[in-house]
Amino acid sequence: MMRKILYSLAIFFLLFATMGCSISNILPLQQDEIQEDTKEETGLIPESTLPTMGGQLRIPVAQPDSIDPLLTKSRDFINFSGLIYEGLFSYDKDLNIAPMLAESWEVTDGGKLWRFHLRKGVSWHHGGVFTAKDVKHTFDILLSQVQDLEGGEDGSIHAKRLFEGRNIARMEFVINNPHAVDLVLNEPAGIGLLEAMTFPILPADEEYDFDLMDIESLNGTGPYKVVSGNMEAGGQVRLVRNDDWWGSPKPYIDSILAKVYEDNVQSVEAFKGGQVDLVDTHVIYGKTHGMRGRVQSYPYLTQYFNYIGINHNYPGILGDTNVRQAIAYAIDRKDIIPRVYSGNAQAVDVPIPPDAWYYNSDLRVYDYQPQKARQLLKQAGLDFDVMDIPDTEDEDAQHPTFTINVHMDNILHKETVNLIAKQLEEVGIGVKIRLLSWDEYVTALEEGDFEAVFLEYYSDIATDLKPFFYSGELPRGFNNYAGYHNGELDDLLDRIGQIDDLSEFKDVYKQIQEILVDELPIISLYYRTSSLITSERVHGIRVPRELMVFREINEWYLSQ
Question: Are residues 359 and 394 in the same domain?
Fold first, then answer.
């Protein structure tokens, strides 16, 4: 079971890295450098005083694995389909849950019954009225896909979000109310359930069958609708404004022309050549790549989180909290991020996105302080002057040392660990780097054959920390490879999964963060970033979000 989960995660990472967004290109500078250099080299692009109606926006889309909005894992197509389809809820710029096709909700029966009140007056692009029938139809499709996930298959991301770790019984219609549905659970669920209710809603009156070449079959409720095209590489798809869209303000841009490329590399080249007006990429410094004219960059955090996992069952120096804190102080992440990722990351102390509404910025403590690291090592009884350690065969007996596993084929991870090893050596800690093939790496995780391990995790639902720290049975703690145990933290993680009050949720999350910062069961490093780059003719963009770069597309407008 563990191996299936790990391989499923690995496939998920690779798909997002390769389908529609290659990370093999040069990466961006630090965010402060972005702002400074954009002003110096390209100038800030002035915005019109008032938005103007009209125009056609040209966007690139890498050829997707599928045009099924419930199954696709192509980064570009997920963004693209967000122009057409909508969920019951979405996110705002601070990762708050925002109503979309659901106007409101209420929770009864101790968190086991969730009633969603749906928006009225919403129409499908192909005709017909949006009702509860469409929501239940889509829910039932996701329910049917759960079996694929349980069998270890690479199934729907949305089914995984909704059903994994929750005991959901069914969805029911509300008698005499076509604009409400009840979600019935066998066990209480907390506010995190709303994150899972962001899946795109499909029309119930159409057959659930998506042909990659039949792009005109896409039928949603969103601000733009498909009128023609195909998804073959070299093809293009034309969308027009949905004048019957329920939202406000109505979109300013008349139409969107999606040009289909083989991959993100071609998309970047198309942007450089002026063939498209924007590109979603890890490349956020246009001057380096010969981009024409003035450009504007909109960096945003991804859910890719990098950290050092620790085996708490291993009787080494990492079992001492003082040593773990010393390591955190000795790692200069502000040196690693520009040197390895060209600034394409943001340092954190906990596995929580720092732009999330429930993140407590007051607990940010582990900045680079080598002297503080040495003091903590002294408290741990490891007070050594690295210059005075003799070059003898028994050096490891005197020199505090640990071994870290690294996947040998990941260049960024290897470079990061090499820098960390040099930084820790400065305070007297030795690091032995153990390079492993993927199969060896996975086996070592499964069998607990590691002292420390460099890991990258994609947090599918940002508020779910159980995979990291929960000491209960699988699958709730399937990433707690080393069996970290903290009874108080377990209780808080159980509680957070049942809280439906936002204020209480934030308070409990603060308590969780305090434990994580104090004990450091893992050593958090950073979240990676991407960026939306646009030409000077695109205006009105505020804060993109991962897999939602066209969020608030109705407020974008073009220079005429």
Answer: yes
Claim to verify: residue 345 and residue 226 sit in the same structural domain: no
What pLDDT, on the 0 to 100 scale, is given for residue 153? Answer: 57
- Rounded to whole angstroms, the Cα distance separating 259 from 239 reads 11
The pLDDT value recorded for residue 19 is 35
* Model pLDDT, residue 154: 62
> Tokens standing for 120?
């009225």
- The answer, yes or no, to whether the previous bond of 315 is cis (omega within 30 of 0) is no
> For residue 258, is it within any domain?
yes
Residue 172: phi and psi, rounded to 5, are -125, 150
Whole-angstrom CA distances from 220 to 128, 204, 209, 383 are: 11, 11, 14, 64
**113: exposed, middle or buried (Cβ count in 10 Å: 0-12, 13-18, 19+):** middle
- Domain range for residue 346? 302-529
Low-confidence ranges of the chain (pLDDT < 70): 1-49, 147-154, 283-293, 383-398, 460-463, 473-479
For residues 372 and 461, state if they share a domain. yes
Neighbours of 409 (CB within 10 A): 12
Domains held by the chain: number: 3
pTM: 0.83
Strand partners, 380: none
- Contact between 469 and 492 under an 8 Å Cβ cutoff? The reply is no
113 three-class SS:
strand
Both 403 and 479 in one domain: the answer is yes
User: What CATH number did the domain enclosing 266 receive?
Assistant: 3.40.190.10
Q: Are residues 328 and 196 in the same domain?
A: no
Distance CA 47, CA 558 (A): 10
